[in-house]
Design a protein that fits this description.
Layout lengths: L22 E6 L2 H9 L8 E3 L9 E2 L1 H4 L9 H7 L4 E3 L3 H14 L8 E5 L2 E5 L4 H4 L2 H16 L3 E6 L2 H11 L4 E3 L5 H5 L12 H9 L5 H5 L3 H8 L2 H11 L15 E14 H22 L1 E11 L5 E12 L2 H16 L11 E18 L9 H9 L19 H19 L9
Parallel strand pairs: 2-4, 7-8
Antiparallel strand pairs: 1-6, 1-7, 2-3, 5-6, 9-12, 10-11, 10-12
Helix pairs in contact: 11-12, 13-14
EC number: 2.7.7.7
Keywords: Cytoplasm, DNA damage, DNA repair, DNA replication, DNA-binding, DNA-directed DNA polymerase, Magnesium, Metal-binding, Mutator protein, Nucleotidyltransferase, Transferase
Main location: cytoplasm
Length: 438
Amino acid sequence: MSTAPRIEAAKRDWGHDETGCTILHIDMDAFFASLEIARHPEFRGKPVIVGTGNRAVVSAASYEARKYGINSAMPAARAHQLCPNGIFLPVDHHYYSAVSHEIFHTVFREVTDRIEQVSVDECYMDVSGALLAWHSPTRIAQWLRAQVAERFGITCSVGIAGNKLVAKMASTNAKPNGMLLIPLDKHAQFVQLMPLRGIPGLGPAQEKRLNAWGINSVSQLARCSVEELIQATGSKAAATHLWEASHGIDPCTLTLHAPEKSIGQERTFDTDCNDLATASTLIKQCCDKVASILRAKGLMARTLTVKLRFPDLAYSTKQMQLEQPTDAASTLYPHAIDLLLRMMGMPADCRGTEVKLTRPIRLAGISTSTLTKREETVIQPTLDELLEENERVAPMPQASSSIPSPANGTRSTRLRCAEEAVDQIRRKFGQDSAHLGA
């Protein structure tokens, strides 16, 4: 659900010269809410909010609901106050993902395989290679919108431009259910109509910093030199990006096959959590889930991050580099608890005791990154593992060996084998059929 600012003056005819405008940005309109309305036609024309429960946040809202001031990431309780007669529905990720997959593979890929999927409901498309058959980017966009509406009963908006930046800003301003072509010679003029937050990726902190330098719009940004922007932002890279963006320039090309960057899991407590035992249990569940996904995907992680969200919706994160890449919850969990205690300013020796947290928590979770393929990952045995092997009078592992097999018999290997056994049980009997003990 996009909350980017839209300018009514931008939603006009900018001309019909499509030369060089081969990048499309396609964005579903209120995707989750629209899908719920598509399978519940009786909801059409009514305020539909996806996200329900005292602790939930809004994942999507229909355009009727947005008139009440409801937007994504808003606490569902607040949305209830703003729109007590709204239709509140639980999030159905499986359904949304299934429809998204079908749209991408039965509609979008009929045009081209040069697609960068940004999220479940958004992508960039390079149609330069498809013009021989389709002749016109606008014709492609019209066909895509018609097919999505006809086959799935929802709408999408499309921006057409010469680069990703302008195409995305065009689709945002075409919403809902619109299409906007920005010819190459109008890129700068179009972008300079926008407020600062109209530039994708420009957040409130950077906006505040630019405001302090008297820069309040993209047009003012465009009048600054790169040197002035370096002073304002404190970063040459940020200054160069902002200068280019303010002139409608974007050197970024499509990323067609982006490798997975992180795998995470987070959960919201039914009530604010005040004790370490409850927080630790939830963290353990998240570690278990993430490790299971890593193993299913054949990946190992070297970086661990713990995320906490507090009752005021502020959040904090802390990360660490693991000594060895891992795909085991038995390795992730103790490190995650260490990070949790550090974030809370609590001593490490209070682990496992009945103590209160220094600050209540609304949500907790972990994510893993610096991912590598398991079969390509080399593990250097730790000193503890070498000593353990020696005590068991087993063959000494070789330095820089491949990932240990169960025959090596170290404690970490045995624990990981137990987790793999649980994976097999869950695949056969369901996700809740088996759990590892602490």
